[in-house]
Amino acid sequence: MSKTTTTIRLIAAAAVAAIMAACGNHQKGDGGNSGDSSRQTAVMSPFVRINIDSTMALVSIRDNATEKKMPNRLFYGKGDSAEVEKLSPEGSVPSSVSCFIIETQGKRALFDTGVGKANGGVLMDRLKSLGIKPESIDYIFITHFHNDHTGGLTDNGKAAFSRAQLYVPEAEYAYWAGAGGKGSTAIKAVGAYGNRLHRFGYGDKLPLGVKPMAAPGHTPGHTVYIAGRVMIMGDLFHGLPLQIQDLNLCADYDMDRTKAIESRNKYTLMAVHNGMMAAGMHFFGTGMVDFKMNERDMELKSFEHNLPKR
What we know:
Blueprint: H1 3-9, H2 13-25, E1 40-42, E2 47-53, E3 56-62, E4 66-71, H3 81-87, E5 92-95, E6 98-104, E7 107-111, H4 123-130, E8 139-141, H5 147-150, E9 154-155, E10 158-159, E11 165-169, H6 170-177, H7 185-191, E12 197-200, E13 211-214, E14 223-227, E15 230-234, H8 240-243, H9 257-273, E16 277-280, E17 288-293, E18 298-302
Parallel strand pairs: 7-8, 8-11, 11-12, 15-16
Antiparallel strand pairs: 1-4, 2-3, 3-6, 4-5, 6-7, 9-10, 13-14, 14-15, 16-17, 17-18
């Protein structure tokens, strides 16, 4: 194992405690149920908008009405139970389901669409609260084809975003359209966009300068997106407070553990070394964090933002 990776794994426990405390201090509930059977608590902020720079804004939107807790057992993997229980003595880690909107160049790009209204998703309600009409979304970028990321693409079988151009990774589409993805609802969902569906390769140029990066492991075509100094991480992390202490811990949802570990290490290091803000679909709190590392450990700091005016 490289010295850098070892350093990342030795995150100070105090840093994690600070994050957990910050999450509690900013709690703001809005009732309802996300449809998830895991333990849940009041959600922090339903949405947060920040200015990345003078040309770009990022909006983090909670698709679940209550904050979720992922039990430790989901991270046991192959013989990791003792370490997991040591690193997460509470028995569970906070998680959530988020979607993100980038606003730049007079356009709006939505990254993932949550679980969908039929499954308890509240993305559409949150967009309404923000004053964002579905038809104002110009582009949709999908990180992978699991239902908690593609479920909101359709409403009663029709495209939920009537004007949006939909971009999906060719590698992800090919897997779920093939024998391995038999029965996938995502293929039908993306198909609802007709000629507005675009399947891209990793060398392709996407709108608004968004750069797609291969990040396989969670799924075969799982994709990270970079927009300016923002890294949309998708499902590289499922239980951030736990996994940031050991990037080699995987949730049971990862299809290929070896590749998932490689991708998580690669893009966490990239975010660290390039001073990028990371936005994760299952990060708790605001869903946005900075990864910072010094010679002794890795310090994780979450943004503190005010709710946008309504």
